[in-house]
Amino acid sequence: MALDLENFKFDTPQFDPRFPFTNQTKHCAQNYVDYHKCINVKGEEFEPCQIFFKTFTSLCPVDWVGKWDDQREAGKFPIKLD
């Protein structure tokens, strides 16, 4: 899903009690995984999946997301997303 930079609005992710500490690495990675699991089951148009998308795009470094995307496309991502 491409970002619409002209209409992009920054939203800070809400507090997630699963990740109460300052290091948000796991929060980032979990939302990336949750987003891809959600769209694989419900499709990209399913609105609740966008919460995961907005969260991981806000928290995750672009380099990480690019690396994970490459791994997914190559079938080498370490977590099952289906």
Automatic annotation (TrEMBL):
<feature type="disulfide bond">
    <location>
        <begin position="38"/>
        <end position="49"/>
    </location>
</feature>
<feature type="disulfide bond">
    <location>
        <begin position="28"/>
        <end position="60"/>
    </location>
</feature>
<dbReference type="InterPro" id="IPR036549">
    <property type="entry name" value="CX6/COA6-like_sf"/>
</dbReference>
<dbReference type="InterPro" id="IPR003213">
    <property type="entry name" value="Cyt_c_oxidase_su6B"/>
</dbReference>
<dbReference type="GO" id="GO:0006123">
    <property type="term" value="P:mitochondrial electron transport, cytochrome c to oxygen"/>
</dbReference>
<dbReference type="InterPro" id="IPR048280">
    <property type="entry name" value="COX6B-like"/>
</dbReference>
<keyword id="KW-0496">Mitochondrion</keyword>
<comment type="similarity">
    <text>Belongs to the cytochrome c oxidase subunit 6B family.</text>
</comment>
<comment type="function">
    <text>Component of the cytochrome c oxidase, the last enzyme in the mitochondrial electron transport chain which drives oxidative phosphorylation.</text>
</comment>
<dbReference type="GO" id="GO:0005743">
    <property type="term" value="C:mitochondrial inner membrane"/>
</dbReference>
<dbReference type="Pfam" id="PF02297">
    <property type="entry name" value="COX6B"/>
</dbReference>
<dbReference type="GO" id="GO:0045277">
    <property type="term" value="C:respiratory chain complex IV"/>
</dbReference>
<comment type="pathway">
    <text>Energy metabolism; oxidative phosphorylation.</text>
</comment>
<keyword id="KW-1015">Disulfide bond</keyword>
<protein>
    <recommendedName>
        <fullName>Cytochrome c oxidase subunit</fullName>
    </recommendedName>
</protein>
<dbReference type="GO" id="GO:0005758">
    <property type="term" value="C:mitochondrial intermembrane space"/>
</dbReference>
<dbReference type="GO" id="GO:0004129">
    <property type="term" value="F:cytochrome-c oxidase activity"/>
</dbReference>
<dbReference type="GO" id="GO:0033617">
    <property type="term" value="P:mitochondrial respiratory chain complex IV assembly"/>
</dbReference>
